[in-house]
């Protein structure tokens, strides 16, 4: 599998409650930093499930970039980064005692950033499936992906269904993941619009402890609820749970499972991710398949 874009370093700050009360200063537990971000987390999670994973992205020549590179290489991901002129992406997440979070994302890629075709094309030609993070430069790969007849998935995070910057990803991907948080009560209509206007065979909306929703091209126009899995240990941090869900889902689908079974595997992987800090709790293939779904 080939993952493209979306790496960075997340800084996690544990707070007593959300929203944080207004004050000049708050004492907090030790602040931790985790290399990953959405693309990096998907690459790491799929690799932990035993999949062969290559990952392409831009990294800065900075401390954060070195942390990302070291973690991915140590995990066995075939990571081939290009130099970013603006540095490595960063994010800061505030996490409360229940594991809920709010994040501030510094994407920092310049608008004219492009991945050279002669760099990425050999990787596409060897790929079975491509997962694109919704970073701007990645959308310029869609034509080559389509020409090669590859299946492609994307994660729109908390897209509201309106912002045009992510719409191309929604309409040109075979499998679309997003969080229900962005569209709120409109999530069902956003999911239907993706299927009606694009090429997706399925749209999956995650809803945290509320489970997830699966809408398929063939079948009912009402998203099918998929229950959340019970975490195998106390919840510590929900950071990376959505990325882990994507990994479990893609593992199931690429192993020949149907969409609903894949969604249940995604739920199990997402629940497991909540039991560790940052993106450290990666579920193994044996753990993913240890309970019948």
Describe this structure in words.
By secondary structure, the protein is of the alpha/beta class. The two termini are 24 Å apart. Helix 1 packs across helix 8 and helix 8 packs antiparallel against helix 9. Helices cover 33% and strands 23% of the residues. The strands form two sheets. Strands 5-4-1-8-9-10-11-12-13 form a nine-stranded mixed sheet, with helices on both faces. Strands 3-2-6-7 form a four-stranded mixed sheet. It is globular and about 55 Å long.
Distance separating the two termini: 24 Å
The whole-number mean of residue pLDDT values reads 93
Low-confidence stretches: none
N to C succession of SSEs: EEEHEHEEEHEHEHEHHEEEHHH
Counted beta strands: 13
> Judging from the principal axes of the Cα atoms, what is the shape?
globular
Main sheet overview: 9 strands, mixed
* Coarse structural class: alpha/beta
Radius of gyration from the CA trace?
A: 18 Å
Q: Beta-strand percentage?
A: 15-25%
Order of adjacent strands in the largest pleated sheet: 5-4-1-8-9-10-11-12-13
The number of helical runs is: 10
| Assembly classification | single chain
């Amino acid at each position: 599998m080939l993952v493209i874009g979306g790496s960075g370093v997340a800084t996690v700050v544990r707070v007593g409650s959300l929203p944080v009360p207004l004050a000049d200063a708050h004492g907090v537990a030790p602040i931790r930093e985790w290399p990953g971000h959405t693309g990096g987390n998907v690459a790491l999670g799929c690799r932990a499930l035993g999949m062969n994973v290559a990952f392409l992205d831009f990294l800065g020549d900075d401390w954060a970039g070195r942390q990302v590179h070291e973690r991915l290489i140590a995990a066995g991901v075939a990571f081939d980064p290009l130099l970013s002129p603006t540095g490595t992406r960063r994010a800061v997440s505030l996490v409360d005692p229940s594991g809920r979070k709010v994040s501030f994302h510094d994407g920092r890629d310049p608008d004219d950033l492009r991945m050279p075709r002669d760099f990425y094309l050999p990787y596409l030609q060897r790929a079975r499936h491509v997962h694109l993070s919704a970073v701007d430069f990645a959308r310029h790969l869609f034509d080559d992906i389509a020409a090669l007849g590859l299946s492609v998935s994307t994660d729109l995070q908390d897209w509201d269904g309106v912002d045009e910057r992510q719409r191309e990803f929604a309409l040109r991907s075979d499998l679309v993941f997003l969080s229900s948080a962005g569209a709120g009560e409109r999530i069902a209509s956003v999911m239907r619009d993706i299927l009606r206007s694009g090429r997706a065979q399925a749209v999956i909306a995650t809803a945290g402890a509320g489970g997830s929703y699966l809408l398929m091209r063939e079948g009912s126009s009402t998203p099918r609820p998929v229950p959340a899995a019970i975490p195998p240990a106390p919840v510590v941090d929900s950071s990376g749970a959505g990325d882990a869900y994507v990994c479990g889902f893609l593992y199931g689908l690429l192993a020949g499972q149907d969409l609903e079974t894949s969604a249940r595997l995604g739920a199990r992987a997402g629940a497991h991710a909540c039991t560790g800090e940052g993106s450290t709790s990666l579920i193994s293939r044996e753990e993913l398949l240890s309970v019948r779904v």
